Amino acid sequence: MSPRTAVKPESRASSDERREQVIEAAVKEFAAHGFHAASTGAIAKRAGISQPYIYALFPNKHELFLATHGRVVQRIRDAFAEAARGVDGPEERLDRMGEAYLRLLEDRDEILAQMQAHAAAGDPALRDSVRKEFMQLMDDVQRISGAPRERVLDFFAKGMLLNVAAALDLPREYCSLGPA
Description:
Strand content: under 5%
Largest sheet: none
Distance between the termini: 60 Å
Number of domains: 1
Number of strands: 0
CATH topology: Tetracycline Repressor, domain 2
Shape: elongated
CATH class: Mainly Alpha
Low-confidence stretches: 1-13
CATH superfamily: Tetracycline Repressor, domain 2
CATH architecture: Orthogonal Bundle
Mean pLDDT: 90
């Protein structure tokens, strides 16, 4: 193996690490300002890199936003899968997944980034990707839980209420935390 080949994996790891740092910074920036008002300059500053380097990692702000949204949804998907693992019955799985989602709601930046993605779906360049992620998450919940579609719709309806309650920092009495 030549020295040039040995350096390549380190460069890739460094680039991957920077990409992760940028996405984490973007979660905070998009959560606070939404797609249109967030700036790549502010994201770069949060990530501790130069703004031009963002464009070495992502072709444009749209792709960065979609990667950020994808990361937030993947965390939800992973939490649901882990919560349902080894649990018998669709209702018990949904209950465990709901408990996992309540823990995710503690990260205000992630919940606000998720809501900003839904709001940004008014932009035709973002709509299809955000829509696809949402539909895939619903399908995944149905598959993981084994619950019928109607029950999954109830699960998501409650989740949307919890999103609003968390984003607005509402007192508990303004949303039901019991079964749907």
